[in-house]
From TrEMBL:
Cellular location(s): Cytoplasm, Cytosol; Cytoplasmic vesicle, Autophagosome membrane; Early endosome membrane; Late endosome membrane
Family: Belongs to the WD repeat WDR81 family.
Residue ranges of WD repeats: 436-467
InterPro entries: WD40/YVTN_repeat-like_dom_sf, WD40_repeat_dom_sf, WD40_rpt, WDR81
Protein name: WD repeat-containing protein 81
Region Disordered, annotated ranges: 322-353, 368-392
Major localization class: cytoplasm
One GO CC term on file: cytosol
Gene3D superfamilies: YVTN repeat-like/Quinoprotein amine dehydrogenase (2.130.10.10)
Organism: Callithrix jacchus (White-tufted-ear marmoset)
GO terms for biological process, alphabetical: aggrephagy
Topology relative to the membrane: Peripheral membrane protein
PROSITE patterns cross-referenced by the UniProt entry: WD_REPEATS_2 (PS50082), WD_REPEATS_REGION (PS50294)
Lineage: Eukaryota, Metazoa, Chordata, Craniata, Vertebrata
Keywords in alphabetical order: Cytoplasm, Cytoplasmic vesicle, Endosome, Lysosome, Membrane, Mitochondrion, Repeat, Transit peptide, WD repeat
Length: 733
């Protein structure tokens, strides 16, 4: 009589508001941060978190819904029977796959697969070992993630990396799974789950690649998996017991098997192995693999007859009478592989399968309902009950994203994911990633926004442009600006973001404060006396909302963008012939500001009191740029070819660098390093802490054309924005 199978709904991970919000935030960050930062900081932590989802016996229990699932013989042969760890890992896998959707297949093959190999790699110690709970969970996480990866790989990529999957994933997993000396902390339960997941994974790969490729690439893993049944069968016949005589303490007995190999065996593990590799497990793997492999099962699996006999014994144990109207005996005849232990025949198309063989119709092995065993047994099916079509697909296409990695972006990303997170140095490889044409005049200044997803540029063409910084193309693509601000009447020499208010501040002799989202001017600050133009501008760090401006009469003025009029006004260099203020820098705390003059003189001012803390002749030439660093450190460059590091209140410089050929007219900071640029298109990196030493790189004409006019560094992404006199900005790494 046909058995009516009621499929329970797919077990779904509960999505309370906090979890749902966290997943959305991770996805948003993955796109916002770009491929290198997302892979280094988001994907790496998600991969570590995936292992945590399977730690402990509780997470290794089958879900309640899968307990009512159909029998072993029904349905898709590689369906996943979920455990509680699968439920917990659902959101993590979803976020990992979202990263792959964003940046393409290389994320799967160059980041996820090496991490899987790391998880399943055997320990360095030789001899008997016992897994710890973290390693045990890592094996389960690795097999689960591999199955997700296989589904999304193209046929070409799958065939390219199939030898790696076989030798770096399947064989190490099987060495733990079938080991006669390595126990699992959670015992038979964890080994059973790993066994079920491994069956599912191997079956999926077999369905993807077809019989011919299975014989060529997967013979060793499949044979190793089946071999454990022969080993246990021989151990049962030898009746191995824990006999300490003749062995030193801690030494395991050596057993010679029928293949001539002598292997150590831990007698205390035999009970655990017997609970896993049962008659039902033999039936579970024999039926689908005999149908999947067809004729080649005799070539790949030497002990197929023994496993077939065990499968027949399982059928006999659950239904001693007959299994079908034809009353087929449940023993395994030594006939062709078309035999089905349930009395049917394996569906045969033309002896081939695979997603690129294009002759496998569907992915199900259909067994008549009236020949199904009445009891599914304690192991249950390989699948998760009621798995959706998406979970059970043989192959899915990764959506093509505009941010997919290729060309220079791919090369740079591959390098970056291999760099240690503890590496605090800036490495410049001169890899061109993006171009930003649009300005008709020289680029005078560039400034990234705080999130590093946009940047601003000011030019001689009297415009300020807002550009997106998302990766696009292969390194040769050009990106258009999102917004162009055209309200300036002269060349723009300063632009930056007032972070506290999220406004843009730009200056052409008059300061404009405007909204970067709409381009609307919010405020314009211009001195009453047109003969006294503004020569330098700086914005105060958050939470301050002020702008500081220096005019040609050596006066420093503060404007609070929330209030009309001036906030403060201070005179600098009274009674001294210091020249014009060329550069301003505000300390990260906002408590002090330093002004650099055309005479090489520098003045340090307390922003809270207006008192001049210090004034000193810092350079012999015009000061070109000043930056303030945490710890009361100042960095200044001058037309006298020098770059000097100062402590605010110390008389002598901490470090002094001298450029051999050209003055350092632009620089930016990366941690304790300074990245410099000169008009001869040389990029240098020097340290704020170590003795004077500087590594310089000459920009090639292929990557950068024109003369370098401005430079800005993206500290999180470790990219450089380089402005030129021809109006084009390049993003290099």
């Amino acid at each position: 009589m046909p058995v009516r199978v009621v499929r329970s709904p797919t077990p779904s991970f509960p999505e309370p508001s906090a979890l749902y919000t966290a997943c959305k935030m991770v996805r948003w960050l993955s796109a916002k941060l770009g491929p290198t930062v997302a892979s280094r900081h988001v994907a790496r932590n998600l991969l570590r978190l995936l292992t945590s989802c399977y730690v402990g016996p509780t997470r290794q229990q089958f879900t309640a819904s899968s307990g009512d699932s159909p029998s072993l013989s029904a349905g898709n042969i590689y369906q996943k029977r979920p455990v509680l760890g699968d439920v917990a890992s659902g959101p993590v896998l979803s976020c990992l796959l979202h990263l792959a959707h964003l940046y393409g297949e290389p994320v799967l093959t160059y980041q996820y697969l090496p991490y899987i190999s790391y998880l399943v790699a055997p320990g360095s110690a030789s001899g008997p070992s016992r897994l710890n709970s973290r390693k045990e969970a890592g094996l389960l996480a690795a097999v689960t993630l591999t199955q997700k990866i296989i589904v999304y790989l193209s046929d070409t990529t799958l065939m390219d990396i199939l030898p790696r999957i076989s030798h770096e994933v399947l064989l190490p997993v099987l060495s733990f799974l079938t080991s006669l000396v390595t126990g699992f902390p959670s015992g038979a339960q964890a080994r059973t789950i790993l066994c079920v997941k491994t069956i599912s994974l191997i079956a999926l790969i077999c369905l993807r690649i077809g019989q011919e490729m299975v014989q060529q690439h997967l013979s060793e893993p499949v044979a190793a998996f089946f071999q454990v049944f022969s080993q246990l069968h021989e151990l049962r016949q030898q009746d191995l017991k824990l006999d300490p005589t003749g062995r030193s303490e801690g030494q395991l007995p050596e057993v010679v098997f029928s293949d001539g190999q002598q292997r150590p065996v831990d007698p205390t593990l035999l009970d655990e192995l017997e609970k896993v590799f049962t008659l039902q497990m033999a039936y579970t793997i024999y039926v689908p693999f005999s149908c999947l492999l067809g004729d080649i099962i005799w070539k790949i699996i030497p002990n197929h007859e023994l496993v077939g006999e065990l499968a027949g014994l399982y059928l006999e144990s659950i239904s001693p009478s007959s299994h079908s109207p034809a009353s087929v005996e449940p023993t395994v005849p030594s006939m062709g592989p078309e035999w089905d232990p349930q009395g049917g025949r394996c569906p045969q198309d033309d002896g081939h399968s695979g997603t690129f063989g294009s002759v496998l119709v569907g992915n199900r092995i259909q067994i008549p309902a009236d020949s199904q065993p009445e009891s599914p047994g304690p192991l249950g099916p390989i699948s998760g009950a009621g798995s959706g079509s998406e979970d059970n697909a043989l192959k899915q296409e990764l959506p093509r994203s505009a941010h997919g990695l290729s060309g220079n972006w791919l090369a740079y990303w591959q390098y970056e994911i291999g760099v240690s997170q503890q590496d605090a140095h800036f490495h410049f490889h001169q890899i061109r990633l993006q171009s930003f044409p649009g300005h008709s005049g020289a680029v005078k200044c560039v400034a990234p926004l705080s999130g590093e997803d946009f940047f601003l540029s000011g030019s001689k063409d009297r415009t300020v442009r807002l550009w997106p910084l998302y990766n696009y193309g292969d390194g040769t693509c050009e990106t258009a600006p999102r917004l162009v601000y055209t309200q300036h009447r002269k060349s723009v020499f300063f632009v930056d973001q007032l972070e506290a208010l999220q406004h843009v501040v730009s200056c052409d002799g008059a300061v404009h404060v405007w909204d970067p989202f709409t381009g609307k001017t919010l405020r314009a600050v211009e001195l009453l006396d047109s003969r006294v133009p503004l020569t330098a501008v700086a914005v105060m760090p958050a939470p301050h909302t002020s702008i500081t401006m220096a005019s040609s009469d050596s006066t420093l003025r503060f404007v609070d963008c929330r209030k009309p009029g001036l906030q403060h006004e201070f005179r600098l260099g009274s009674g001294l012939n210091t020249g014009l203020v060329r550069s301003l820098a505000v300390s990260p705390s906002g408590r002090s500001i330093v002004a650099g003059f055309s005479s090489g003189f520098m003045v340090l001012l307390d922003t809270r009191t207006g008192l001049v803390l210090r004034g000193w002749p810092a350079h012999e030439g015009d000061i070109l740029q000043i930056k303030a660093v945490e710890g009361s450190v100042l960095v200044s460059s001058s037309s006298d070819h020098s770059l000097t590091v100062w402590k605010e209140l110390e008389q002598k410089p901490t470090h002094h660098y001298k450029s051999a050929s050209d003055p350092i007219h632009t620089f930016d900071l990366y941690g304790s390093e300074v990245v410099t640029g000169t008009v001869s298109n040389k990029i240098g990196v020097c340290s704020l802490l170590e003795p004077p030493s500087q590594a310089t790189t000459k920009l090639s004409s292929e990557n950068f054309r024109g003369t370098l006019t401005s430079l800005a560094l993206l500290p999180t992404k470790r990219h450089l924005l380089l402005g030129s006199d021809n109006g084009v900005i390049r993003l290099l790494a």
